């Protein structure tokens, strides 16, 4: 196992980042030195035998090459600075993740077996349920109850209750472990009535909102929403 510092970031990662920065700086310095010394020597080789060619080349192209070299060195320096800054941002981000875990996630321990699961307080499906129950159409109110009942089934499964139906799951519940069990039963029975009777089932918005509040009590008990 790699050693980690107090912030949870592997020490090797920070060391490699620093070594990479030092290497790039040395490479930059080496490029400058090489440009100054090598170009000078390169265009002096065979001075007497090809002096005319060297003179023309030096007068015409050498200044351009020197400008290109300076531009390349400057670009390399900017790139080095950029890499160092981005590396520091990554390290800082990883440290913050370790120090400040997502406050929207909560671990809930339920039942005697101490099973734990993580739920999201910003439950998009519950937001959808609330939008449906606020609709002016009765079919949307029924859909809201059906969706909330599906969420209830998933909650029961996550808690650890097993069964071929939600009724079997609810029958396993110990009232001391599930304070809102009566609300769960009543809400689920309403769902069954809607599912069995379909369009023929008469449901007022006030009654639909009351059933949704029952689901809400269950979900809030287990911090599911």
What is this structure's SSE topology?
Layout (H helix, E strand, L loop, with lengths): L10 H32 L8 H10 L1 H38 L5 E6 L4 E6 L3 H10 L4 H22 L6 H6 L9 H17 L7 H17 L4
Antiparallel strand pairs: 1-2
Helix pairs in contact: 1-3, 4-5, 5-7, 5-8, 7-8
Describe the structure.
The two termini are 38 Å apart. The chain has 2 domains: 11-99; 105-221. It is mainly alpha-helical. It has helices at residues 11-42, 51-60, 62-99, 124-133, 138-159, 166-171, 181-197, 205-221, and strands at 105-110, 115-120. The protein is built from 8 helices and 2 strands, in the order αααββααααα. It has a two-stranded antiparallel ribbon with strand order 1-2. Strand 1 (105-110) and strand 2 form a beta hairpin. 68% of the residues lie in helices and 5% in strands. Helix 4 (124-133) packs antiparallel against helix 5 (138-159), helix 5 packs across helix 7 (181-197) and helix 5 runs parallel beside helix 8.
Helix count equals 8
- Mean pLDDT figure: 74
The shape, in one word, is elongated
Q: In angstroms, what is the radius of gyration?
A: 35 Å
What is the element string, with H for helices and E for strands?
Answer: HHHEEHHHHH
Strand order of the largest sheet: 1-2
Task: Write a concise keyword list for the protein shown above.
elongated, 5% strand, 2 domains, 225 residues, 2 strands
How do you describe this structure in short?
This protein has 225 residues and is mainly alpha-helical. 68% of the residues lie in helices and 5% in strands. It has two domains: 89 residues; 117 residues.
């Amino acid at each position: 196992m790699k050693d980690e510092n107090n912030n949870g970031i592997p020490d090797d990662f920070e060391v490699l980042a620093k070594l990479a920065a030092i290497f790039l700086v040395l490479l930059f310095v080496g490029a400058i030195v090489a440009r100054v010394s090598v170009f000078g020597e390169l265009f002096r080789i065979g001075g007497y035998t090809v002096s005319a060619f060297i003179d023309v080349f030096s007068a015409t192209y050498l200044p351009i090459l020197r400008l290109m070299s300076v531009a390349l060195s400057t670009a390399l320096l900017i790139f080095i600075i950029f890499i160092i800054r981005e590396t520091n941002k990554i390290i800082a981000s990883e440290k913050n993740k370790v120090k400040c875990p997502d406050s929207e996630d909560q671990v809930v321990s339920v039942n005697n077996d101490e099973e734990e699961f993580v739920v999201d307080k910003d439950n998009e499906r519950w937001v959808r349920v609330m939008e449906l129950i606020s609709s002016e159409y009765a079919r949307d109110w029924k859909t809201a109850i059906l969706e909330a009942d599906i969420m209830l089934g998933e909650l029961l499964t996550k808690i650890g209750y097993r069964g071929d139906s939600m009724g079997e799951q609810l029958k396993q519940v110990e009232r001391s472990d599930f304070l809102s069990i009566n609300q769960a039963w009543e809400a689920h029975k309403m769902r069954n009535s809607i599912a069995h009777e379909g369009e023929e089932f008469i449901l007022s918005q006030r009654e639909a909102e009351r059933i949704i509040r029952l689901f809400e009590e269950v979900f809030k008990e287990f911090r599911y929403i």
